[in-house]
Every structure is written in C-alpha cells, then in structure tokens.
Amino acid sequence: MNKAFNLAGAVLLMACVASVSADQRTELLKLQHTTLNLIEALVTEGILSRERADQLIAEAEQEAEQQVKQEERSVADKRDVVRVPYVPEFVKDEIRDEVRAGLREDVVNDVMSQAKNERWGVPGALPEWTSRIKLSGDVRVRWQSDLYANNNKDGLYFNFQGANRNGGLINNQSAILNTTEDRHRARARVRLNLDAKVSNNIKMGLRLVSGDPNDPVSANQTLGTDRGKYSASFDRTYLRYKGFDSDTYNWITLYGGRMPNPWLHTNMVWDSDLNFDGVASTFRYNLTGSDNLYDMDEQDKNLFFTLGAFPLEEFELSSRDKWLYGAQLGMDWTFQNQSRLRFGVAYYDYENITGEKNALDSRLKDFTAPTFVQKGNTMFEISNDDPASFRKFALGSDYNILNMTAKYDIANFSPTHIILTADYALNLGYDKNEVIKRTGGVVFNPIEGSQDPFRKRNRAYKLGVLVGWPKLRERRQWNVSAAYKYLERDAVLDAFTDSDFHL
User: Fold this and answer.
1) What angle, rounded to 10 degrees, do the helices at 2-15 and 25-45 form?
2) pTM of the prediction?
3) Which residues contact 395 (CB under 8 A, 6 or more apart)?
C-alpha cells in the first residue's frame, strides 16, 4: 500500500511538468523519465499490475490539466486588479527631504528669474509702456597727453575758432594754437541713452552727453575747472522708422531729427562722435532673393542707397542757410564664415558754407563765418574795418567731396578678427581761381617758405588694420589697431573730421 501511494505521488509530479516555468523544465523532464522507468520496472517485477499502472498515469495527467487551468484563471484575475501600495508617513517625509535637497541653487535662480521677468502672480504690476523703454550708457575716465615734435614752429596755426568767438586775433591770449608745448590733462566722458519703442516699426532715441555743447566732434570734458560744474546736453534726439516686406526684409530705414551717422565711413571724413541734424533714408535691395524659399530667407548680400539732407546753420535774416546734402551707393556682403565686406561711394555737397567779404565798416556778412572750425582749411578775413577792434574769418574754398570707403572684416580666426580699412576723399569743389577771387588774394594758411598758398591741396586717404575683437563689450576682450592717414589742407571740412588727428 505504501509503495502504491509513493508511486502515485511520483506520477502526479511527473504530470505537472506542463505547469512549471521554463527554467525548471529540464529537471522535471529528467524526473518524468525516471518515474516512467520505475513504473515499468514495478510492472515487470509483478509488484504492480499493468492496469493499475495505466490508471495511475491517467489520474496524474488529469489532475495536472486541472491545476494548469486553475493557475491560468488566477493569472487573468490578477491582471484586472490595481494594487495601491501603502507608503508610511516617515517614508514620505524622507522622500520630500531628498527632493528638496536635490534642487540645485542655479535651478531655483532660473525659476525666480523667469518669475520676475514674466511677473508671475502680479498682473499689471508695472505699466505696459515700461517694457518699451531701454536705458544704457557708458562712462570714460582717461589721462591724455598731447606731445608735439621738437622741430614744430610757433605761430603756424591761427586760432580761428577763438577769433570768431572773441572778435579778433589781436589782444587775444588764444590767437595762436599750441603746437610746441606738451599738454597733459585728465578727461572724462559720460553718455546716457534712452531708446523707446513707439511701435513695431518706430523707435525714438535720446542721448545725453557731457562736454562742450558747441563742440560737435567731442564729448570729452577736461577736468580741472576750479570746481565749476560740467556741461551736459542732448546730442541725439531722433525718430527712426524701419520698413519690412512680406519676407521680413528691412528694405528701408528713415531717420529724422539729430541722428547717428547714417554713412559707411571712417574718421577721415567724419569724426566718430559726430551726429547729424536733418533727415536721412537708406534703401536696401536683397541680392539673394529668389523663388526658392530657402534662398529668400538669406539676407546676407544686399545693395544699399542712402540719401540725406542736413541743415548746418539757419539764419533768420538771410535765405542763404548752410546745408549739407549727401548720397551714397554701396554693397554689404556677408560670407558663410561670417566674414563681411562693405564698400560705398559717396558724394557730399556743402551749400553756402564759403565766406563773403563785408563792405567797409559793415558786419552784414558776419553770418558767413563758420560757428565751429578746428584747423587746416583755407581761411580768409571777412571783416573790413579796423583790424585792431574786430576780425572774423571764414572758409575760402567750397567743398563737394567724392568719398570711397571699403571695410573688410575677416572672421576666419574668430573670435579674433582682422579688419582692413581703406578710405579715399577728393574735394571736387576746390577751384584755385574761385578761391583767389573770393579771398582777394589774401589767405591764412599754415605755409612754409615760398609755397603757393593757393596750390590745390584737396586729396586724402587712409589705410588701416585692426586685429582682435571688433568691439569691446566684456572683460578680457581686446584689439590693437594701426593706420596711416594722409590729409591735405582742403580735402575735407576740418570742422567734422577726426578731432584727435594731428591734435
């Protein structure tokens, strides 16, 4: 009886091979063959009859099939059950502390910055117009030394600016410009910009600067005024309009008021601090536009044409106001490596800037004297009375300037750039015969020996190179530059050229 019971258990185990996992199948198959061999041996020895052996195997297979079906139903039921594990409170506290500790400080700062910029939770905290205004500015403090050559001659340059302001050269301590005594001084400059976005296309610009308000080419203030207050004035007050086509291409820009320099230029013709009164417009033509949508997105090759009209001096009792008219045609080409080539040909036409001689003991033509000059241009005396009492001086030549400018920014070694500059100017308005007739043959020029004071000196050119960062905006950025400039007496109007050249 015990043998039969043990044998039945072995048969049942053998029949359960189908219900186990694949990892245990090998071992169970071995056990199955062993059990079958054992049953066959018991039948052979007469311990177990053939009928009883077949019955045991059939019962074991039936019970195994029932067990497999029951397990399949149990697995299907488990798939429909959603288990929600219980998390104790102390575990929740530990998770919360770990999450808090894992937040980096920079992530928190980013979130706070975004919240501040977007004004989360504070609707209408600031008026909408405040987002349209941008303030910027800069401060310069420097030590400046003006060093003169040992072989310079005294009395070479008359101080025409001082004479026109003070009424003469005689008994005027500043009658002659300094060209021999080295000068050392501390200087400062302050500029404050305000840009206001009026609309998507219109911007208003204002700039407050230090320095002499009557000096158009410098905002530097010399320190050492015996504690006197410094002057400040607006050197920019303008409106700017930008027009865009359907491809968002800026095809036109309009300026009105006192504006930044609209020309492609160097400081050979226009000082870097000079601003312009009047109106100007720049038209652009995109050379890369085509029917290809990808090409139309490219705006790195274009032609430009700039026109400008600028009043220099307006007179109440005369129709001969002084004006400057200009036009410039050029190209602006940016290459795939971000190198940039710009070239422009300009023509600047000055109207009514030459002087006129007064009648005897008259001052009706004093308005023809310029309000600002530096030094170098041909000047003559327009006063026609006692020279000891009053003298004024004006320009002897007209100025119609042809100017060609090229700038090539090589970016192959970025962030280090190599910028090559070339500039050429020719004053087509200089006419020797007209100058002699206008001045009466008497001019005040810095001449030496027996040189002809009316000899045509109307050309200028400049070659320059800059290596480094194109503009210095951050710490450790640098550049170094060198230039050679040749500037003849009447090539450009000296009132507006570089204020530091030849000091």
Assistant:
1) 150
2) 0.73
3) 353, 354, 355, 370, 373, 377, 378, 379
β-strand pairing of 250-259 with 322-334:
unpaired
H or E element that contains 70:
helix 50-79
Q: What's the CA gap between 201 and 89, in Å, rounded?
A: 60
Tens digits of pLDDT across the chain (503 residues): 444 444 444 444 454 544 455 556 666 666 676 777 777 777 777 776 777 777 777 777 777 777 767 777 766 666 555 565 666 777 777 777 776 666 556 666 776 777 666 666 665 566 777 889 999 999 999 999 989 888 888 777 788 888 888 766 665 556 788 888 899 999 999 999 999 999 999 999 999 999 999 899 999 999 988 878 888 999 999 999 999 998 889 999 999 999 999 999 999 999 999 999 999 999 999 988 655 555 544 568 999 999 999 999 998 877 889 999 999 999 999 998 889 999 999 999 999 999 999 988 888 899 999 999 988 899 999 988 866 567 889 999 999 999 999 999 999 998 999 999 999 999 999 999 999 999 999 888 766 555 788 999 999 999 999 999 998 888 899 999 999 999 999 999 999 999 887 66
User: Distance between CA 118 and CA 128 in Å, rounded?
Assistant: 12
Cβ neighbours of 136 (radius 10 Å): 10
Burial 397-421 (b: 16+ CB within 10 A, else e): bbbebebebbbebbbeeeeebebeb
Nearest to 462 by CA among 410, 400, 403: 403
Helix (H) or strand (E) holding 151: none
Q: How far apart are CA 473 and CA 263, in angstroms?
A: 23
- Longest Cα–Cα distance in the chain: 163
Which of 137, 226, 138, 141 has the alpha carbon at shortest distance from 187? 141
The contacts of residue 404 (CB under 8 Å, 6+ apart) are 343, 344, 345, 346, 423, 424, 425
Give the separation between CA 90 and CA 105, rounded to whole angstroms.
26
